[in-house]
Records
---
Amino acid sequence: DAASVDSDAQELIASQEEGRLFGMGAAVDRLAELGALRKGVSRQHAKESLWLLGGLEPWRLAQQRGWTRRKYEQWFHTCARALLID
């Protein structure tokens, strides 16, 4: 039944996104342990910022603009450093 397939797909996507958010939290926790997390940036904000930057939509938009994977990765790292690292 289409309704249950859509519901199942939505649940799967939600679960995957929660897992991705959890993974970003691990990276942020490590930055905090190293004393590298920018002062004034909460762990929650840092985790959510990485989650947003690393989502599929920014990558899709970059592809639409003709960006290579390398250019996107450089952009992602530049943004992440600027947002999160002292």
Note: The chain has four helices and no strands.
---
Amino acid sequence: MFALRMLDVSSSKSSLKTDAWAKMVEDLPVNVMVCDIKTFDMVYANTSTIETLRSIEHALPIKADDLVGSSIDVFHKNPDH
């Protein structure tokens, strides 16, 4: 399941809410990854995601710590498709 939440961060009050959302997502006990919709590059992975991926690094083509900045295609059966 995926969810997208957009917030208006043009005011300082909204910025505080954004900081609260960011902290909440970072601390969630579930894996959360975000990719750029145009490039499909991973732009965010929360702590839970990195910890989970570290436990299966032996089966991944990249290190968990290198996920952000990589293409989501690293999870594809044929990444060069």
Note: The CA atoms of residues 31 and 78 lie 23 Å apart.
---
Amino acid sequence: MAAIADVVSTAAIAAGLVTALLGVPLLSRRVPPNRWYGVRTPATLRSKSRWYRVNTYGGRRLLLAGLAAMLAGAVIRISGPDVLPVMALAAIGSYAFGVLDTLWFAVMDRD
């Protein structure tokens, strides 16, 4: 079980790092409207101001979800396999919350 905990902790830390790094350009408004990267809805692609507002919000959520995943991975690495289920759910939950919260914001956002 310890080997599984090591793999999960490494994966959580790596995925968290990538996720956090993907959030930084969105948070700092460095990503212009496009069809590949960012929160792409018909409304955000129609309005530049909405694009930046929603993607700044989403970038912050990506950064926070990435940090939460890295923290969960670190806790698994330090504490061992006993905390694996709880921390794995915490990492997955942080991603789910970030995505759903950002989509809700995008839908509810009005110019």
Note: Residues 33 and 45 are 6 Å apart (CA to CA).
